Fold this protein.
Amino acid sequence: MYVSFIENMLTNCRMKLKFDDYMFDWFPLDNGIGQGDLLSMVLYLFYNADILEIPKGKCELGLGYMDDVAFVVTAPSFAKAHNRLD
């Protein structure tokens, strides 16, 4: 039931943009979810959960809040930190 509801919510979406006095025709959206939709925050947690499991070592950290993710690495030099992130 939930999967069908979410699938219907993300199917056949379209958008129309307006800049100043010019309006574009309708065009389909093939990804994304409605901005401001409260359910989008919950769905994003499922979508993005695996990315926070990438950091493994004691000098590596992954942080996530809403739709932002950051990776933090500590190392004795920039080159070593860069290699860990690479």
Q: What stands out?
A: Helices lie at 2-9, 38-48, 78-85. The beta strands are 14-15, 18-19, 22-23, 27-28, 60-65, 68-73. The chain has three helices and six strands. The longest helix spans residues 38-48.
